Every structure is written in structure tokens, then in C-alpha cells.
Amino acid sequence: MKITVVYNPTAGGGRETLLCRFVAELEKLDARVRLYHTRGPGDATAYLQALENQGDCVVAVGGDGTTNEVLNGLAPGVALGVFATGTANVLAKELQLPKQPEQAARIVVNGKNVPVTPARLNGRRFIMMCGIGYDAWVVDGVNLSVKERFGKLAYVQSMLAQIRRYGQRHYRVMVDGRPLDCFSAIVTNGRHYGGSFVLSREANILRPQVQVLLFQKPGVSFLLRCLAALLLGRMERVDGVASLRAQRVEIRCENADEPIQADGDPAGKLPAEIVVEEVPVPMRVAQTFQ
For residues 223 and 220, what is the distance between their CA atoms, to the nearest angstrom? Predict the structure, then answer.
């Protein structure tokens, strides 16, 4: 098996020892490994796009942002593997992938492929989620130096800083042509959010649709109820949260320069056009994954 490993040395503060153990186990399993260390934002995508032959599988070693970059450079028909060493690692949680490097390597070599269908946000792929409003403000406001030193605490800091802004912006969302209004929105491919929290029990990463969660009431008290519900995995039970399946989503905000986040990183500004792709990506998971 020919495997290209793309490693982000800044994800999660760096995990060189884990990387070495992961690559050693791949080679022990008779895989032919090509290893690449990324040098900055966008480098993983550019590197893969320049490769004439990416091999049988490309493995992203880093966080969800690293996986997003690898996804956007992945050639058609090549499998995507993940060894999560980043901050949130939402996709790894969704696919029940292990943190232990030897186990992760065995899944890449001896596991199976499942079809995961990405979506495109303004032409760029994402695999887990994108968000606008409060969700995007939090990601946009993360202090990268704090994130590098303290991991998820950087997101908590940004969440607290952005709470009072909630409800100040109003968005028009078209969900498969149906016009709706909200004060924040998250478009998700899977169930999990921020690592282990369950955002949507209706979402299914193996289904070629996204789940659209619209937060349709203003006010800090409503947002706090939603955050409490997230901790309990009951977001879709909150009065004022709408959850819909979709193939195509369009989001606009008049007279405002509003950010978007995708897979945990800033992803430009509104307007947003989100379209589910027609062809899934084969992803490496354990034989026991269902």
C-alpha cells in the first residue's frame, strides 16, 4: 500500500513523537510511506495538487484544519486517512478513530473505506461543518498563540468574549430554495462539535446531505440555553433551534461584513453558497465502524 502522510507540525502544539510512532507502524505493516511536513497555511493543498501520483491513501496528521487542506488537494479516487493530533479533532471523533498512533496506522492499512460526501463552501471543500454568526465569530476571534499553548481553552476564551454580540446580526438562509431567517447557523455533515459534544442527532456523515441548524431567537439568554443544551447533547430540542436536511444552502447578511468558519478555521466572508458534492470521498475507518 502506497501512503502519503501530510503532517502539520503546528497542530496541537506539535506531535513529532506520535508522528514517528505512526510512520514506524505503517512501515512495519509493509506500507510504502512518503512523508511531508507542511510549511504554512495552504501548503498541504498545494503540495498534493502538484503530486503526479498521491498513492492509494493520503493521511492527514494534524487537526481538522489540516484534514480540510488535505481534502482540498486530494485526487479523485484516493482514500483519505486521518491521524488526529490537533486541538478539537471533530472528524476523528465522528469516525471513531483512535488517538494511539499504532492503532491509527493499523486502521489506515487494514481498515475499510466508507463513503463520506464533502460539501463546497463558495467552491472550497469542507468535510465536517461550517458556521456563521456566533459560531464564526468565536473561530475568527481565537488567539492563535493561546491556542498553541492551551488548546481548547482558546476557544472558551473566545466564546466568552463573543457572547454579548449574539443577536446583533440577522441572516437570510435559503435551504434547498426555502427562505428562512436566523441569528446564527451551523451547517454540519456529522453529529459532533468541538470534539466530543453532540450538536445534531439528526446528522449522518455517511448520508450525502448536510444538516442545517438555525438559531432563530435573539438574546443572550437564548444563546446560553443553547450552549447548555450542547453540553447535554440536546441542541435540537431547544425551542427556537430549527434542524433541516439539505443539499444546497445559501446565506446572506445585508450591510455587514460577516465571517464564515469551515472545519474550525476562518473561511472568508458572506455571502455563502454551500453545495453537497455528487461524489463521496473514500475514508479509512476501522472494520468495526458502522
Answer: 5
**E strand segments, the chain:** 2-7, 32-37, 57-62, 79-84, 112-116, 119-121, 124-126, 129-132, 171-175, 178-182, 184-188, 192-193, 197-198, 210-215, 241-246, 248-252, 259-262, 265-269, 272-276, 281-285
Phi then psi for 194, rounded to 5 degrees?
65, 25
Grid cell listed for 144: 492563535
Each domain of the chain, given as residue ranges in start order, spans: 2-110, 124-276
Q: Which residues pair with 210 in a beta bridge?
A: 246
Domain 2-110 has CATH 3.40.50.300: no
Residue 13: its pLDDT value, please? 61
Of 144, 115, 108, 87, residue with least CA distance to 263: 87
H-type alpha helices, 141-243: 144-150, 153-162, 220-232
Over residues 26-72, the pLDDT tens digits come to 999 999 999 999 999 999 999 999 999 999 999 999 999 999 999 99
CATH 2.60.200.40 fits 124-276, yes or no: yes
Q: How far apart, in whole angstroms, are the C-alpha atoms of residue 208 and residue 195?
A: 22
Spatial separation of the C-alpha atoms in residues 117 and 204, rounded to whole Å: 10
pLDDT digits 0-9 by tens, 241-255: 999 999 999 999 987
